[in-house]
Amino acid sequence: MRAIQADLIDPELTPSPEIDTPGFFDFDVVVMCMALHHIEDPDNMVLQLSKRLRPGGILLIIDWVASSAGSSAQTENRTLGAISRMGFQESEVKSAYDTAGLEDWAWKLTSAPSQVPREIGGEQQLFLARGKKPCS
Predict the structure, then answer these.
(1) Whose CA is closest to 122, among 54, 69, 52, 45?
(2) Which fold has domain 28-132?
(3) Which of 54, 56, 75, 77 could form an SS bridge with 26, CB 3.0 to 4.6 Å?
(4) How far apart are CA 113 and CA 16, in angstroms?
């Protein structure tokens, strides 16, 4: 196992020539779990991740569903500098997948909410979003 540091959104921030080699493309599955809410431009992240898939490959994102109370928690947490937003609506994620050219959209909520620290929202509902890169 090995790791590299790279920034798919702004490659100049963490230059890594290795990220553009064939070994970092044509994935069968790309999973992003509990990280999209940390990204300032989630639509672009979905696009960049989709570029790493092989035709027929699957992008699976797991993150928080936006709640009606999320706006106050979102403002409060922005000062921490770690969380860009407190969740997503299905329509937002679907739009990002559509813009990235992914198809066979699926959205599923977890069977029970997750417990997270109160200062970042308390109980939160998670979603799983799935899309497939077209084969042609």
Answers:
(1) 69
(2) Rossmann fold (3.40.50)
(3) 54
(4) 38
DSSP states along 8-37: SS-TTTS--GGGGSGGGS-EEEEEEES-GG
How many whole angstroms separate alpha carbon 113 and alpha carbon 84?
Answer: 21
* Residue reference for tokens 């990002």: 96
Summarize pLDDT for 49-79 with one digit per residue, the tens.
999 999 999 999 999 999 754 444 444 544 4
| Residue 93 amino acid letter | V
| Per-residue model confidence (pLDDT) at position 73 | 45
Where are the domains positioned within the chain? 28-132
* CA 50 to each of CA 29, 31, 40, 55, 81: distance values in angstroms, whole numbers, following the listed order: 10, 11, 17, 10, 26
pLDDT tens figures, 36-50 = 999 999 999 999 999
52: three-class secondary structure by DSSP: coil
Give the model's pLDDT for residue 80: 55
Distance CA 64, CA 93 (A): 11
